[in-house]
Amino acid sequence: MIKAHITGMVQGVGFRYYVWKQARHLGLAGYVRNLPDGSVEAEAEGEEEKLNKFIEALKAGPSGAVVEDVQVEWKESTGKYREFSITH
Q1: Residue 5 burial (CB < 10 Å; 0-12/13-18/19+)?
Q2: How many angstroms separate the Cα of 74 from the Cα of each of 4, 5, 12, 28, 52?
Q3: Does the pLDDT value for residue 41 go beyond 90?
Q4: How far apart are CA 88 and CA 76, in angstroms?
Q5: What's the rounded Cα separation, in Å, for the pair 48 and 87?
Q6: Which residues are known to be catalytic?
Q7: Cα–Cα distance measured from residue 52 to residue 64, given in angstroms and rounded to the nearest whole number
């Protein structure tokens, strides 16, 4: 399981939808949400190989986004997520 904090121009550019699509494509569960400071937070559970691909997708971002930094924290999986969702 990873928890990621993404900074840059990542709000108002379709970033959450992009992250949701990437996670669904990889079969990951978790969430993505905007934070009040203009950054985005994502938490995802799944196989390590797929999580690494997900991290690369976070670093790339959708066209229109400018990803400055992605901080990733690896954690023990909890199994609390059934699917990947966009939350507020």
Answers
A1: middle
A2: 9, 12, 27, 15, 11
A3: yes
A4: 24
A5: 23
A6: 16, 34
A7: 23
Which of the following CATH numbers is that of domain 2-77: 3.30.70.100, 3.60.21.10, 3.90.550.10, 3.40.50.2000? 3.30.70.100
* Domain coordinates in residue numbering, the chain: 2-77
pTM of structure:
0.96
Mean pLDDT across the chain? 97
Beta sheet of 2-9, edge-to-edge order: 66-74, 2-9, 40-45, 29-34, 84-87
